[in-house]
Amino acid sequence: MDTIIATHELTKIFSGRAVVNRVNLSVPQGAIFALLGGNGAGKSTTIKMLTGLLPADAGTATILGEDCWADAIDLRYRVGYVPERPRFYDWMTVRDIGWFTAGFHEAGFAPRYADLVQRFRLDPAARLKTLSKGGYAKVGLALALAPDPEVLILDEPTSGLDLFIRREFLASMVELAGAGRTILLSSHGIAEVERVASHVGFMAEGRLLLAASIEELRKRIVRVRLHFDGLPPDPADLGQVLQFETSGRLWQAVLQDPNRLALDDLRQQTGIRDLEEMPLCLEEIYTALLTRFHRPEGVQATSNGRVRKSEIRDQKSEVRSKNRPGSFFPDF
Asked: Dihedral sign, CA of 253, 256, 262, 265?
């Protein structure tokens, strides 16, 4: 599958701080790629470099094989862009802003814009200043789609919209991707984009924590839950540990890239009961990735706080000590 959007070690520095730090992205043709993260994660700055509004301080960014900064003018006719807070001449009507913008584009823009206005159920005679947030966002999307772009980039497109409009807006993205367009959108509303995204990338503090297709994510990050008798298993033997906790005889861990052979062996071990492996939703994955990103080396995080790796060894030693000849019976 062709790669439409690509970055390599993309970096942007403001005031001596890397707000985008060596980001590597690969977005295939026809994908709906959701760039997810909280405010200040670096999503908007990444998008500004992709749309030619900011030069990169290091690394590269390309769309359709063209450099996003050096070839920005050529890409303007092939890439539609809707910023987080679009601003138009609010004294114009919906029809006027289309007529005005058509002067900067090739023939065909005006009739496509008129069709989109009708499709989005906008009143052509309504002044922009009278539109709701949802209506204003639809005007921005119509202007971005009217040039018939191959790629669509949306920065927080559902910010400030009510629930019904957000769902309607995101559903329209599926139609556009089905028609062959490649879409990259940023959002901090992780749960709402899960229903439409085919690929996701998680960002925090300028870094890309993980990027993959939804299908791949379901396999790469899982929650393993079990009950144990005797010695608790060491989660570090089963893959990269993002989260881990025990409560009594209940043991559970969130693992990235689980070791399948080790998990199969664990199922056969005496004293291991009710082992379950479950996929996570995007919000749970992002929480687990942030937990791993923020904790110091040598420390494992749980939902109850931080636990050092040695705690598992100490727990095992305690069990062995309780089972030595002459000791008290284990209080299991």
From this structure: positive
| Number of compact structural domains in the chain | 2
Strands (E), 15-90: 17-28, 32-36, 58-63, 66-67, 79-82
Query: Among the three residues 183, 216, 249, which one is the final residue of a domain in this structure?
Result: 216
Q: What is the DSSP string of 238-263?
A: SSEEEEEEEETTEEEEEEES--HHHH
Do 226 and 187 fall into the same domain? no
Where would I find the H helices in the chain?
A: 43-50, 72-75, 94-102, 109-119, 133-145, 163-178, 190-193, 214-220, 260-268, 282-294, 309-322
How far, in Å, CA of 18 to CA of 136, rounded? 33
CB half-sphere exposure, 207, CA atoms < 13 A: 8
Range of weakest confidence among 43-47, 194-198, 254-258: 194-198
Contacts of 55 (CB under 8 A, 6+ apart): 49, 69
CA-closest candidate to residue 108, choices 66, 153, 137, 77 = 77
Please name the amino acid found at residue 101: T
Tens digit of each residue's pLDDT (9 = 90 or more) over 133-182: 888 888 998 999 899 999 999 998 877 677 777 787 788 888 888 888 99
Q: Which residues sit opposite 199 in a β-bridge?
A: 33, 213
Query: Does the residue 127 lie in any domain?
Result: yes
> Do 66 and 11 share a structural domain?
yes
User: Within this chain, do residues 207 and 225 fall inside the same structural domain, yes or no?
Assistant: no
DSSP conformation class of 330: P
* 287 shares its domain with 159: no
Whether residue 74 sits in one domain with residue 183: yes
**Domain, as residue range, for 257:** 219-322
CB 263 within 8 A of CB 238: yes
The two three-digit tokens of residue 322, written as one number: 């309780």
pLDDT, tens digit (0-9, with 9 covering 90-100), for 261-281: 999 999 999 999 999 999 999
Count helices and strands in the chain by DSSP H and E runs: 11, 16
Which pairs with CB-CB distance under 8 Å and at least 24 residues apart come from 245-249? 245/302, 245/303, 245/304, 246/315, 249/332
Domain membership flag for residue 329? no
- Rounded to two decimals, the pTM is 0.84
